Amino acid sequence: MLDIAKSKIEETKFIIKNNSKDQINNFNKKDKINKFEIETIIEKNKENYQCYKVYVLVHNEKNNFKLESYVFKQ
């Protein structure tokens, strides 16, 4: 579960750094890999306009895992 969450965080960081603000705002993506459901959410940080908070939630029937990261658009 940790590996899936880490890879989704890295994928989302790439999306933030390489796309326009319109494509990033209100980003909420749901995927399914094997028996795991993955939800990726991007929130814009209100204190810093170049900063985004990324949540990745991975869960299956028995376990839940949440990973958070901050990303600066450059």
How would you characterize this protein structure?
The protein is of the alpha+beta class and 74 residues long. It has one domain: N-terminal domain of TfIIb. It is 28% helix and 45% strand. The protein has 2 helices and 4 strands. It has a 4-stranded antiparallel beta sheet, covered by helices on one side. A hairpin with a 6-residue loop joins strand 2 and strand 3. It is elongated and about 35 Å long. The mean pLDDT is 87.
Alpha carbon gap, first and last residue: 29 Å
Count the beta strands: 4
Shape: elongated
Give the low-pLDDT segments.
none
Task: Please sum up the structure shown.
28% of the residues lie in helices and 45% in strands. The protein is α+β, with helices and mostly antiparallel strands. The chain has one domain (2-72): N-terminal domain of TfIIb.
